[in-house]
Amino acid sequence: MTSLYHPLNLLLLCIGIISFGSKIHAEDKTPIYIANQNPFVQIFGLPKSEPGTITAKDKLEAGFLYYVSNNAIQDEKANGETITWDGETTQYNFRFRYGYSNNLELGVDIPFVEHGGGFLDAIIVRTHKILGFPNDRQNGFEQDEIHYLLTENDVTLYELEEKRKGLGDMRFSAAIPLFTQSLHPQRHLAFRSLLKLPSGDPKYLLGSGGTDVSMGLAFSDYQTLKGINTVLMSNFGVTYIGNSKLFSEKQRHIVGYGGATLDWLALDYLELKLQLDIHSAFYHSELKQLGSSIQLLVGGTIHLPEEVLLDLGMSQQLMTDATPDVGFYILARRLF
């Protein structure tokens, strides 16, 4: 029997999905909705990129995000800090955004987090061989196993060697449009805020054990690159990090974040996206894996019938070791 995962079958499936696509509306354009999934970072309230537009009044957008990321690295610094980051982190996130009024969007994210050995190791090794990339990191670890370890001066600050999963830290958000009368009709600016509550168990890196608050601006520009069917989007802001139950002596309390997105309308029902996300360090540490981050995201959005949107793509480490080597995401959402 031919496998569903045979490349030809996947290609035919994608063609079939696209052929039933529906035309894109301007308000549907959004950035890629994932953030750095470093297991020592994802416990905090780092916001994901969102648009400068808000959900229309009395409309509800419901979505489900699946994001799996993989890494295999060890590092040691002269000051006595060491880190082992070998494994996969997976997020299953239920996402809701409601247009309470013309000037207020309310939202909630309910994440479930899983840390384990996963399944991507063999795929990454094989892909590296095909592309001629080295597998030095991957060859230093057993495949499909988990070991997260952080030490300082031979004192273990944290260690996880078994698969763990459960409810993560819930997030509540709000957004209001700004300067709606003075901005160009095709340019939108929104103030966005986020409250992350300690609902996940910090013992298993399902949460931090603290409360975090973020405030920032989101901008969507439909005008500047209108001639080439491209939308510019950006986000930036600050996050206040409450005391973690695990790393309160190493963590920072103020973190900056930002991102920029190019969204190109390739077909009437297909967008292609390129995004860069950054954030400053969450920890006082000389380890690059706990430092500032630059992450590249590549993906797209397929517009299906009945106002269903399917986002899919990948994340890639870029210039730093603070983000996973690679990750893959799928987000299905619908406006009601």
Your description of this structure?
The protein is mainly β. The protein has one domain (7-335): monomeric porin ompg (Porin, Beta Barrel), CATH 2.40.160.40. The protein contains 3 helices and 15 strands. A 12-stranded antiparallel barrel has the order 1-2-3-7-8-9-10-11-12-13-14-15. It is globular, with a radius of gyration of 20 Å. Mean pLDDT is 87; it is low at 1-8 and 10-22.
Main attributes of the structure:
mainly beta; Porin; globular; disordered N terminus
Shape: globular
SSE string, helix = H, strand = E?
Answer: HEEEHHEEEEEEEEEEEE
- The average pLDDT score comes to 87
Counted up, domains total 1
Distance between the termini: 39 Å
Topology:
Layout: H1 7-19, E1 60-76, E2 81-101, E3 104-116, H2 121-131, H3 136-139, E4 147-152, E5 155-160, E6 164-167, E7 171-178, E8 187-196, E9 212-221, E10 230-241, E11 254-267, E12 270-279, E13 293-304, E14 308-317, E15 326-335
Antiparallel strand pairs: 1-2, 1-15, 2-3, 2-4, 3-6, 3-7, 4-5, 7-8, 8-9, 9-10, 10-11, 11-12, 12-13, 13-14, 14-15
What is this structure, in a nutshell?
By secondary structure, the chain is mostly beta strands. It has helices at residues 7-19, 121-131, 136-139, and strands at 60-76, 81-101, 104-116, 147-152, 155-160, 164-167, 171-178, 187-196, 212-221, 230-241, 254-267, 270-279, 293-304, 308-317, 326-335. The chain is built from three helices and 15 strands.
